[in-house]
Design a protein that fits this description.
The complex is a heterodimer.
Chain A (H helix, E strand, L loop, with lengths): L12 H8 L12 H6 L4 H24 L9 H23 L1 H7 L10 H11 L4 H31 L1 E2 L2 E2 L14 H35 L1
Antiparallel strand pairs in A: 1-2
Chain B lengths: L5 H11 L10 H6 L4 H32 L5 H23 L1 H7 L10 H12 L4 H29 L11 H15 L11
Helix pairs in contact in B: 1-7, 3-4, 3-6, 3-7, 4-5, 4-6, 7-8
Chain lengths: ~220, ~200
């Protein structure tokens, strides 16, 4: 796929930070929701899933960026999928070898990283057009953003749902855990609550900007 | 698990362990195309069809790979088959209903990355269903997906007329709704059926 030289992004801090905040795959772009909701019933699962996804994301983006001039445009999606599936198979076997407990807890969702739209989206929208080092940094940022989002959900759900954080008791003994939080509905509710919080922050900032403009115009 | 009756498998996939609301599979199209009931219905049918095709293909592939002792290629083969099935549906829809093709938009090719379909193929392999059971399982899963999509679309159509605080418009509201639906579906958990 031929790319124009002026479309190449300059490497800057923004290349990394964008994935964490402005274009956070979960909270802003709402991509890859399935693992976000399914495996975040404990912090440990969330971290493992985040790291596994980050590895696949970085590895596949790097390879796709390297191969971008050799992959024909017509079969690019199929090629991306095959590349991603290869790395997922690697992760699948690796986690099985490292910790069988973790493997059982995450279940089919490790193999389902293949169908995570964050990864395919990155491949299509970024890695197929940009140079190697910007792709590497950008996908690292995206992976970090994804992990942070998983962590944000996982920790809240674990504290409220079972009263622990990473397996340690963090709330007083007399606190009755809200079991619903580690069940499926809890995932939807916690993610919804996070989105509400971000929407509220965004609105407040916009209102302040408007007020400031109004004040400077009047003055 | 040869002992499970076909009716049980169907009910289990469609309601008790609903793919969207209990297992969190296929959330992206669930949130993306559930704004209108017509679109939701057609998306559900398209997904059901792809599920059926890929479930049958996955059964065949699993057998072939088992004979050849190449199990580590399973994931790659499954996803390749799903991608081809989606391509087929896409060509079919484009030919016979261009208006539907436009209304489904980007979500039609994205059925490939609908984890409900890959999940279905993986689960039926893990549960060691035979051919008939796999087909019934796929039908149940597709029906459950369509059901969840239609429920969500109905609710969202009603909500458009309601006045909600501007902060909670959009994705946050949809997620809260999905949470309530999921809570309702937990009521079916007593009907039995193993997780997954």
């Amino acid at each position: 796929m031929a790319t124009l030289p002026n479309m190449q992004e300059k490497l800057s801090l923004d290349t990394f930070v964008r994935g964490l905040w402005e274009e956070n795959p979960v909270f802003v772009m709402l991509l890859g929701m399935c693992p976000v909701l399914a495996v975040t019933n404990s912090t440990m699962n969330a971290i493992a899933m985040g790291l596994a996804t980050t590895f696949v994301l970085v590895a596949s983006s790097t390879l796709i960026s390297l191969l971008r001039s050799w992959i024909p445009k017509q079969v690019r999606i199929a090629s991306y999928i095959v590349i991603i599936a290869t790395f997922v198979t690697v992760v699948d076997y690796a986690i099985q070898a490292i910790s069988l407990d973790l493997y059982n807890a995450l279940g089919a969702f490790i193999q389902l990283i293949v169908a995570n739209c964050v990864i395919l989206g990155r491949a299509e929208a970024y890695a197929s057009k940009q140079r190697l080092h910007t792709t590497l940094i950008n996908s690292l940022g995206m992976g970090a953003g994804f992990t942070v989002a998983l962590l944000a959900l996982g920790s809240v759900r674990e504290v409220l749902g079972s009263g622990t954080l990473l397996g340690f008791q963090v709330v007083p003994e007399n606190f009755e855990p809200w079991v619903v939080m580690i069940l499926p509905p809890g995932g939807f509710f916690v993610l919804g609550a996070w989105l509400l919080l971000f929407a509220w922050l965004k609105q407040r900032r916009e209102r302040r900007l408007l007020e400031q403009e109004g004040a400077s115009n009047a003055g | 698990m040869q002992g499970e009756s076909l009716g049980f498998i169907f009910l289990n996939a469609a309601v008790v362990n609903n793919f969207v609301l209990a297992l969190f599979l296929g959330i992206c199209p669930f949130l993306g195309v559930s704004a209108k009931k017509d679109t939701a219905w057609n998306m559900g049918l398209a997904t059901l069809f792809v599920m059926l095709v890929s479930s049958m293909a996955a059964y065949g592939i699993n057998w072939v790979l088992g004979e050849l002792d190449l199990m580590f290629l399973r994931l790659i083969c499954y996803i390749a088959v799903i991608a081809s099935a989606v391509q087929l549906v896409e060509m079919f829809v484009k030919k016979f209903s261009p208006s539907l093709f436009r209304s489904l938009g980007i979500f039609l090719p994205l059925i490939t990355t609908n984890c409900a379909i890959l999940g279905l193929a993986l689960f039926q392999t893990a549960k060691e269903y035979d051919f008939i059971q796999s087909v019934v399982y796929a039908t149940g899963a597709g029906a459950g997906f369509t059901l969840a999509l239609m429920l969500m679309a109905g609710l969202r159509e009603k909500l458009e007329l309601a006045e909600v605080p501007s902060v909670s418009q959009g994705a946050a509201m949809s997620l809260m709704l999905a949470g309530l639906l999921s809570l309702a579906f937990m009521g079916f958990a007593g009907l039995g059926g193993s997780h997954g």
